[in-house]
Amino acid sequence: MDINIESGWKKLLQSELETDYFKQLNSFVNDAYQTTEIFPPRELIFEAFNLCPLDKTKVVILGQDPYHDVNQAHGLCFSVNNGIKFPPSLRNIFKELDSDEEVDFRMPENGNLEQWAKQGVLLLNATLTVEAHKAGSHQKQGWETFTDAVIEKLAKEKENIVFILWGAYARKKVSLIDTNKHSILESPHPSPLSAHRGFFGNKHFSKTNNYLQSKGYAPIIWDLPQVQKTLF
């Protein structure tokens, strides 16, 4: 695969990109794209990094796997392309935002979260590729080692980042982060299976902005652009 990744991230991760495990992962991913249908599109594998440069990163939201149905995944965790029906977890994320009185948010018409990424929210999946219609099919091939290194190196390189960890899988990543330098927000996952156990009402979005502002950073504008309808 082409390591098409923003220059700041590439410098931070260069030693990781040169490891034997990453070279093996690269071969696996290249073979997969040549022989089967893989998501996201090859040129969007590292889109989370390219839309959120290292020097602008101030929030990390961690997902697990890219969406595995057609036209959903575009390189950002929980985000879908314009015009795609909201997956259940994303719908619950929007419900939580809508219920947080400290956040200005209107239920959007599209589930594309690019505007969050461009403000400094790294929307990082633990696994960056997946075979069509086969959830988890690219797990344990090396991606998790790579994205763990991303979290660990980012946490060492910077300070005052908000790490948002939803669900048991993401919460295990606390061990990679110096909690004295950063803010950690944890709760159950927004999946319908667990959202009512503590995801709803966690107020992670307003808590993120309160922390950022306390450190002198601009808050994230969570409200997403509304589609402009043409009137004839």
Topology:
Layout: H1 7-17, H2 20-35, E1 38-39, H3 47-51, E2 59-63, H4 88-99, H5 114-118, E3 121-125, E4 130-131, H6 143-157, E5 162-166, H7 167-171, E6 183-187, H8 204-214
Parallel strand pairs: 2-3, 2-5, 5-6
Antiparallel strand pairs: 1-4
Helix pairs in contact: 1-6
Structure report:
34% of the residues lie in helices and 10% in strands. The protein has 232 residues and is of the alpha/beta class. Helix 7 links the parallel strand 5 (162-166) and strand 6. Helix 1 crosses helix 6. The longest helix has 16 residues, at 20-35.
Essential attributes:
alpha/beta, two-stranded antiparallel sheet, 10% strand, four-stranded parallel beta sheet, 232 residues
Instruction: Report strand order across the widest sheet.
Output: 3-2-5-6
What's the N-to-C terminus distance?
Answer: 45 Å
Q: Measured on Cα atoms, how large is the radius of gyration?
A: 17 Å
Mean pLDDT: 95
Brief overview, please?
Helices cover 34% and strands 10% of the residues. It is built from eight helices and six strands.
